[in-house]
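Researcher: Let's walk through a ligand-bound prediction step by step. First, I give you the protein sequence. Second, the SMILES string for magnesium ion. Third, you return the three-dimensional complex as structure tokens. Ready?
Model: Ready.
Researcher: Here are steps one and two:
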Amino acid sequence: MNSEETLLAMDFDDTIIDGDSSEAAIELAPEGELPKELQSIRPQVEHATFMGAVFGYLRQQGITAHQILAKVRMLKFAPGMQEVFFDIYNSEQEAIIISDANSVFIDSILQHKNLNNVIPKYNVYTNPACVNPHSHQIRIQPYECQRQCDLCPPNLCKGQILMRHISKRRANNLKTFHIVYVGDGVNDYCPCMRLGSNDIIFCRKKFALEQLLQCELAKPEEEKRLYAEVRFYTDAFAIRDRMRIDNVFFPARTMTPPTVPSSTTTPCNPSEDSKCEEEEEEEEETTSSSSSDAKGKKAPSKDLGKAGKGGKDGKKSSIDAGKPRKGSTGKGKDKRGSTGKGKGKK
Ligand SMILES: [Mg+2]
Ligand SMILES: [Zn+2]
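Model: Step three, the predicted complex:
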């Protein structure tokens, strides 16, 4: 291939799936609502800590991890996303997921769609979680504890994760990366602002990121800190089409990804190094599956069936692909490459 490789970086909730997995879990609370105490801590703590409290509460209410995962697995893929996954698989395109959900949800959902073989677990950056086989409660830990980025919560800076991934890959030989970033939310703003003019942002229409990026785009030239090309999209067919035009997705074959055996995903194996402490008491929060692993053997919770559930936005329509890149397969180094730069404060 060329001296430049493409990296496809994607958010998960409301981007890969049509809906928010954490919100889906919260809906299981009695009457669909969390108690006041929990609601009140939400704005004060980062998402992983909040969800840890939610899982504890749900378990007290008699709701098991098994039930939560069954609910979360009902979330559908966003329109066109399954096709994007097929193309990632068929073109062997490198892709990563960066998400403030958690490893158990992501793994469980991808597995349920038979797509857990497309993006390797070590390319899924998220809050590590596991299912405690004894208490049947989901445990979750913050992905990190960062203070460098004031745009992001302490538990997860998507921009830094993206940049770290790129440096790691560069250290392994690849010279230049052309980044295609796909997201919808406020926490996707940070990585977007770190991209260069050779990169592309696919921003899902009608979600929070759209407005943030529109504000950036409206700034006068001298104040602009958003360098990447921005494509607002309604359905992910636009992403697939653009990637095909750019020759990133070259459909060399058209197979559906093989199913990977289930049960290697959610349960904690207490004897592994990164694991859930399986004290009966509910408080020790050591977790398994650092963003990348999530092994485990015994599967206390087995897959439940599927079902349908709509997501928010969903019509498929416009292919918003746009002009072919200057140098589709590569090239186009320029002013800023695809790295660093331009963190903004809000
Ligand atoms: Mg999202
Ligand atoms: Zn950040």
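Researcher: And what stands out?
Model: The first helix runs from residue 21 to 26. The beta strands are 4-10, 95-98, 124-125, 129-131, 138-140, 176-183, 200-204, 229-233.
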